[in-house]
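From the pipeline queue, job 12 of 40. The input is one protein chain; the requested action is below.

Action: predict structure.
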Amino acid sequence: MPRDNMASLIQRVARQARLTFRSPAGPAFGENLHRLQQLLNEVRAEDLHLAPRGPSAAAAAAGGGPPWAGVVPPVSYMHICETESFSMGVFLLRSGACIPLHDHPGMNGMLKVLYGTLRIACMDTLPATAAAAAPPPAAAGSGPCLRALFRSRQHYTPASPPCLLSPHTDNLHQIDAVDGPAAFLDILAPPYDPQHGRDCHYYRLLEGPLAGAEPPALPREVWLVETPQAADFWCGGEPYPGPRVCL
């Protein structure tokens, strides 16, 4: 059963997000961010009137691939609220879906799994230096290359604390739904805005895919190449069914 305070909980998350990201360079930012993290960690799927749904991993395997492929979006987004300082919503991933490796220029972010299991690979961009090694031959003829630090690749469930990113730490990440559909509550601060230099860029790891076998020991330096948005990835929209948020 949903908890009695579910409406006040997501409302308090939104209000704390507004307070936290209104002054990200202020002296109280760290304390406010910690409080927001604590509140976000309390949110459960039922608080937002959500429940696991969609094809199971077994059904996907039986069909030789995701049964939603080419029919419905692999990922959907439920908008909750947005201000100049932050946006908040829910991403729903079908079984086997992946949000490709992408960046969040100059942005902070928080991600809390509501149901399912996500595998999240996180990376930092590295400054270009004259002493840096040249990109590998596989980069020839590709898009712009970027040197990055592959920091971590971890599984997140509803029992996990929020995954955090900052403008300089874990700012690039790839998100895969593992063993079935998954959903997560997402806060980005400030929101994407191409007119102000906050457009989303996609990347590919030159040393091989991020999914599958575990990579070599982390952290380690890697080369990324900027790519267009993958043809098999797009994000649809769905109405948000949870408690209303007023700001």
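Job complete. Helices lie at 6-22, 29-42, 57-62.
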